[in-house]
Write a structure and sequence with these properties.
Shape: elongated
Largest sheet: 7 strands, mixed
Strand order of the largest sheet: 5-4-3-6-7-9-8
Bound molecules: S-adenosylmethionine
Length: 241
């Protein structure tokens, strides 16, 4: 059987917990239906069916993003760059290489580097092995490099990259000071004239503020289509020549 690339499921534990809560609510509503405690009767039907929907619908939408929406979103992000094929590209929090590989397929003489710290809870099967397997299956081994490195403290010299990409990574840095450091690192490794295309579902205005502090020109892109869950915002930060 031909092996196909696997780009993983984002936040798999969140999806699992939502599905468990959904099933428990369905069981309480349709099977248990009510309990009586100290002569007080609690009815689970039909109220808990609404709770089941409140847990189940986000879980299904998150799975749809992982299986379909993320590929549209990757193309939307990569579409913000006027590619020549010669770019030096960095993907911050590359995971299983969604953007790294997408960018590499647009390169001729350029090169794409992906960094990550491989948090298991952020993406299913997260680790260099899964990424290297995808790189090999997509045939971009000669145009990519993978490094275990933290977004908050990168070892690249100033002005290394023409394009910096990052999707759904920075919100995983839980403290504001850490997210600020990561934005400043992205600005630092960007070449003059280069662009950072950053996407996330929260803190995007905070990133905008940090990039402006670094002297970058920031464009907040309007939501073009809601085919991601949670809805993802994109910003493009350019380092003026
Ligand atoms: C939800 S996954 C998204 C992966 C990929 N960007 C995509 O869109 O498919 C978030 C990734 O960010 C990585 N990550 C989280 N914090 C990081 C940090 N401080 N430095 C580098 N990578 C980080 C996680 O390990 C994970 O691979």
């Amino acid at each position: 059987m031909t092996q196909r690339p696997n780009y993983g499921i984002d936040a798999p534990n969140v999806i699992r917990n939502l599905l468990i809560a959904c099933v428990v609510c369905v069981i309480l509503a349709l099977w248990v239906r009510s309990v009586t405690v100290a002569h007080i009767r609690f009815d689970f039907y039909p109220g808990f069916l609404y709770s089941a929907a409140a847990f189940g619908i986000p879980a299904v939408l998150m799975l749809l993003y992982a299986k379909v929406g993320k590929f549209h979103h990757r193309d939307r992000m990569l579409g913000k760059v006027a590619w020549t094929g010669a770019e030096m590209v960095l993907d911050v929090g590359t995971g299983r290489g969604l953007l790294l590989i997408g960018a590499a397929t647009r390169l001729t003489t350029g090169h794409a580097t992906g960094i990550d710290i491989w948090n298991a809870e952020d993406l299913s099967g997260n680790g260099p092995e899964g990424l290297l397997s995808n790189i090999s299956l997509e045939g971009v081994g000669g145009k990519t490099t993978v490094k275990s490195e933290n977004a908050c403290q990168m070892n690249f010299p100033d002005g290394t990259f023409d394009v910096v990409l990052s999707n759904l990574c920075l919100h995983n840095i839980y403290d504001q000071a850490g997210r600020s450091r990561a934005c400043h690192e992205i600005a630092r490794v960007l070449k003059t004239g280069g662009a950072a295309v950053i996407s996330d579902y929260k803190h995007v205005k905070e990133y905008r503020g940090e990039f402006i502090k670094c002297g970058l020109n920031v464009e907040m892109c309007p939501l073009e289509r809601i085919d991601t869950f949670p809805p993802l915002r994109i910003l493009v930060a350019r380092k003026r020549a």
